[in-house]
Amino acid sequence: MNTRPADSGRVQDAPSNNWVYRVLPRPLWPYAQLARWDRPIGWQLLMWPCFWSAALAANTAAALGTFSPGRFVLHLILFFIGAVAMRGAGCTYNDIVDHDIDMEVARTRSRPLPSGRVTRLQAKIFMVLQALAGLIVLLQFNGFSIFLGVFSLVFVAVYPFAKRFTDWPQFFLGLAFSWGAIMGWSAEFGTIGWASVVLYAAAIAWTVGYDTIYAYQDREDDELIGVRSTARRFGERPRPWLFALYGLTTLLLFVSFALAGAGLLAYIGLLIAAVLLFYQILVLDIHDAAQCLALFKFNNVVGAILFASLCAALLVRLA
Hints:
Layout: H1 5-8, H2 19-23, H3 29-34, H4 41-64, H5 69-97, H6 99-104, H7 120-138, H8 143-151, H9 153-162, H10 169-177, H11 180-189, H12 194-215, H13 219-225, H14 230-234, H15 239-260, H16 264-283, H17 289-318
Helix pairs in contact: 4-5, 4-11, 4-12, 4-17, 5-7, 5-9, 5-11, 8-11, 9-10, 10-12, 11-12, 12-15, 12-17, 15-16, 16-17
């Protein structure tokens, strides 16, 4: 008889060869799964808008003569730790809210809460501990950034419920997941600039696009249990929507770079990223769940290229 993921301590939609299962004691596996440490793509996608914003602000600061390499590196370290902590807290909160729904979806029923490997009380305590870690990180920034970070919790709190009242829960995910696009700029300048606002809008469009691709894995289950999503909204013809979303992402990134005075290398990186975004649309097979997941994860490469290009433009400016 085959061993089910829940029996093996694994979850169905995460790789079983992840470091979590090689390093952590088995009793800690359910908590690592709640935080999605076995699926780093989530914190990576949360981190990239933070890194873009920090690098974009660094380009502007370099032009103004106020750039500090030490401050830039410190901000990147803090954003990395914060992304891991807050993504984990957010996922744990989402699992608590979606406990009953996850029991009805084949891909999520092996997660720690629906499988009974942790209790709701244990999950809540773990969520608070992760949130406290995120708070400690947030307190290292200036006062305005602390205010912005606390305000973002409004979007985090609303997102898990969005699938119950709108076909666009991915938009609410974008509001929460893209907030770092403002935070990086605020950490450098203590204010919100137009470049960061436009960057935030670009990151929202990007998030709606890639999470729509991700949502096609669950479309049939979502239809059965009445959960709403852009995948259900777009149906069998997602390409026009995705072209619009990724096209808007590219346009807004271009405008943001221009407002911040980014150098030529940033635009070269944007061109490469745009090609990779539209490649996803061209090859997408919405009936192939494995491919949908792979294309969703591929957006980590897009995020890395944009950040690297902004850093390259910064180095040229400093040379």
